[in-house]
Amino acid sequence: MQGNLLEGFWWKQKPGVTGFVVLSNVLGSPAHANISISDSDANVIANHSATIPAHGSSLVNLSDLESAPSAEGGIRITYDGPSNGLEINGGLEDPAVGYSAHLPLHFPPVTAAEHANQSFAALDLMKGAADPMMSFPSGTTFSPYAVVRNISNQPVTIRPSVWWMDGIVPRSIRLPQFTVAPYHTRNLNLP
Fold first, then answer.
1. Residues forming beta bridges with residue 169, ordered by sequence position
2. Taking Cα atoms as reference points, which of 148, 145, 150 lies closest to residue 162?
3. How many whole angstroms separate alpha carbon 86 and alpha carbon 80?
4. Is the separation of the CB atoms in 33 and 52 below 8 Å?
5. Computed over its alpha carbons, how large is the radius of gyration of the chain?
6. In 3D, which of 50, 45, 68 has the Cα closest to residue 60?
7. How would you label 106-117 residue by residue, b for 16+ Cβ within 10 Å and e otherwise?
8. How many domains does one find in the chain?
9. CB proximity list for 34: less than 8 A, separation 6 or greater
10. Domain that holds residue 129
11. Counts of helices then strands in the chain (DSSP H, E)
């Protein structure tokens, strides 16, 4: 893993989604962080700086997402000090409709590991009307989505497969292969 650099992605189904990042400093001296927000084609749309006090936390609002020109994009966080000096978490939210989601952040792969085959899975995607026993507001419906971001400096080929249950029978479909340019973000637009 490469220290002092985190990469992630954001996604919004509807306008009104914003985000935030919380940076917590576990060290006895202040730390400095830079947060860069990009659109789906890796064009920077906003930059934020934060100074995190010793043993303190800073909240950075990502209100820029609400007016972003695309529905998905990237986030890059760099910071000074030791790689384990900050605990960083983030989220996406739309308070008007009660939407919230985790903002995924990862260390980029080391150069030697960039060309390795990797598999990722997303579990518990829901589709259709919410079951009343789940306590979601009346009229809530779910639609599956998948967003990918290439956090390496080389193009990456994606070969998506979707698996689901049809009663007790597992089903699957292989979606067309595609390539994602370095630092670009793509919505798979699941059917």
1. 166
2. 145
3. 9
4. yes
5. 18
6. 50
7. eebbeeeeeeee
8. 1
9. 47, 48, 49, 50, 77, 78, 79
10. 5-187
11. 0, 17
Q: Which two tokens stand for residue 185?
A: 């973000």
Tracing tokens 């390795």 back to the chain, one arrives at 116
Quote the tokens at residue 173.
């479909």
Structure tokens at 172: 């699957």
Reading the chain (191 residues) residue by residue, the pLDDT tens digits are 345 889 999 998 788 899 999 999 999 999 999 999 999 999 999 999 999 999 999 999 999 998 888 899 999 999 998 888 899 999 999 888 778 888 988 887 766 555 567 777 776 677 788 788 877 777 877 777 788 888 888 898 989 888 878 888 898 889 889 999 999 999 887 65
Residue appearing with tokens 């952040």? 105
Its pTM stands at 0.80
